Amino acid sequence: MIRTGSGHAPCHHGEILQGVFLDTAGRRCAGLVTLPMAGPGSRAKFVRRPGTPPEALTAVPAGRTKAVRAAALAVAECAPRSGQPPCGGELILTGGIPVGLGMGSSTSDVIAAVRAVADSYGVRLAPETVARLAVRAEQACDPLMWDGRPVLFAQREGRVLETLGPALPPLLVVGCALGGGAPVDTLALPVPEPDENEVRAFERLRTLLRRAVATADARLLGEVATASARIGQRRLRHPEFDALAAVSRRVGAVGVQIAHSGAVAGVLFDPAAPGLRHRVRGCLRALDAQGIPATRTFTTSGTTPSSKELPHGPAHRRGDRPAGPDTARRPARLPALRDDEGGVRPRRGTAPAGHGSGAPR
Predict the structure, then answer these.
(1) What pLDDT digit, counting tens, does each position of 67-81 carry?
(2) Is residue 279 helix, strand or coil?
């Protein structure tokens, strides 16, 4: 009996740290650490068609070329392991990750596709193997195959430079979108070659982040995220960034983080801070006053982020992730917020988000 395989992959909320780091051989590598987030993700089903050539793959929705490429690579990887002949099939993708905000939507598709193919062959692939296939499918990918474990990941090479620990320090994140949620075309941005001083600065941030994880120090993590975001501003040039950082300081947050391949950003709080609800409400009011649309407030704790959203109730997206090709999906709409009385609170300065360029390059 031919088995229909299923797979799932999470998303993330941009980066905590991104830069150029040294590997164990002293070689420079582009690397990043993402902020895990529960909630929307990609799901895939793979229905094998025995007797068809392995390149005979179709996708629903049509046009998900990266996911189809990943599925083909996964068939070539899994069929020999299972002792079954490779064949074509149909890949069915669903999910609710907003596109264009830098939340790893394309990588999530790719990983879900690989996992679905592996499941159809009764094979379990290690995260390292999934990462290798994902990079081959989309040139650079996010470390979502580690399911929230904090790793410094070489996104262009698909390898872990360092496992930082079992989990990031617990955080409460007030998510928002810069530039009204407009897409960021990272491929069109200049990529300056870092000098020795910049590499040393990234390595210092890496050391501080390692310490923050080891000691569960949310404040130190916030300092690292803010420093990384400021460096990223040299390329991204978000006009609201200074206002965002000022809001963070004013409400007693530990720092800010941004996506380096999109518009999503976050104000980071220590969940153990006194008067947390008051601080978060003040943050939401201040963001609104600056015309920065808030998206969702969520917590992270342990190895898996929590979908519980505080203090104003769950944020609601106005529609799931749209169907369409990798490069031309319908723009995603930012989620609405609820106030404490349960009514939808309007935001200013909201604009639709387009499709970003995928994992940071």
Answers:
(1) 999 999 999 999 999
(2) helix
